[in-house]
Design brief:
Layout lengths: L11 H4 L5 H10 L4 E3 L3 H8 L7 E4 L4 H14 L1 H5 L3 E5 L2 E5 L5
Length: about 100
């Protein structure tokens, strides 16, 4: 879906199947990418360890079809939040957006 809409996409497997979350987070930041995940560990990296980060979208307990629909909504309605590096958690029927600052 993202590729068909002209977005460049890289998967963790393409980068390195054994890459750590820290490595993926840093790479996404360097390449100005939105990190899309189902992994809650990125929250610890951002909110506890306060690592610099790009926008992060976390899908929670959603089927792939639901994720595609939610991603379309994010791209259409929340592009400013994605561009500003927000952390966005998406569950069925709810989108939570949190802007962070790194000290």
């Amino acid at each position: 879906m993202l590729v068909e809409r002209g977005h460049e996409v890289r998967t963790a497997v393409e980068v390195d199947p054994r890459a750590t979350d820290e490595t993926l987070l840093d790479l996404a930041l360097q390449e100005a990418r939105v990190l899309v995940t189902e992994d809650k560990d990125f929250g610890e990296l951002v909110f506890v360890r306060r690592l610099p980060h790009p926008a992060i979208v976390r899908f929670v307990e959603m089927r792939v079809e639901e994720q595609v629909e939610a991603m379309q909504e994010l791209l259409a309605r929340y592009s400013t939040d994605l561009e500003s590096g927000a952390v966005i958690v998406v569950t069925r029927g709810r989108i939570r957006i949190r802007h962070t600052t790194v000290v």
